[in-house]
């Protein structure tokens, strides 16, 4: 799966990570830069290649990393979308593709994972409405970062169903209408960032 990722990073490896460290022969996958394995089963649990200057696409083979808990692809120069095969990663708790170059439009609808608690999609070319069933599919969300996109429509009242939500960042989008009073039901909410939208008023 990781060799497939290496093969799909086609144009840029400014720190020579792929050519020197990510090798099938020189070292164990668990010793690759940006890769963490579980101590007991030695299966890949974390892929963190944030801010490594990578360019290319994300291969569907990443969906075979069945023990993956965290995937961070942020601040790179990828293109395309996350492959749908990632939706079968049932242990996944965190995804971050902020400013990665990836189009995250499919991410808000593709996952139905009760364990996911962190979703970072800032500057991810998101358009359209925020799905009203988001919290039913991702009921354990604690941190939701959707700033600097082109989301529109109203904030769905069902956002209050994300009862564990601590951070909700919706700044710099095109949301309209009123701010739903149901946000006041989020008892664990610590950060609410909704500036630079087109709201008409506040009903909190």
Automatic annotation (TrEMBL):
This is Lrr receptor-like serinethreonine-protein kinase. It comes from Nicotiana attenuata. InterPro entries: DNA_repair-toleration, Leu-rich_rpt, LRR_dom_sf, LRR_N_plant-typ. Residues 2-37 form the Leucine-rich repeat-containing N-terminal plant-type domain. The lineage of its organism: Eukaryota, Viridiplantae, Streptophyta, Embryophyta, Tracheophyta. Pfam families: LRR_1, LRRNT_2. The keyword Transmembrane helix applies. GO terms for molecular function: kinase activity. It is found in: Membrane. GO terms for cellular component: membrane.
